[in-house]
Write the structure tokens for this entry.
Amino acid sequence: MMYMLPWQTIFFSLLAVITSVIGDSAMKYSIIQEDTMKRALTDSITHGTVGALCWAAIIMNTQYSISRKCIEIIFAAVCASGIDLDHFVAARSFNLKVCE
């Protein structure tokens, strides 16, 4: 017997892929490349959105309440946004230009 993925899983997974492609493409625009803060924000927002969408793909098919799902999705976004914090730790600085 073949297992079918629920439509929510497919939908949120596709959105995560599309978000990744758009986020990577956005990094190529000169308006973003010229400013270190814009690059950092674009990268962090992309990571957070992809993290939230990936977790939504997993959790939407559970029996949890909608409020718990929202809290978990927000937590996943925050965790995914913080993925680049290791650059600051390695540079021992909160200066964006040092952490590039």
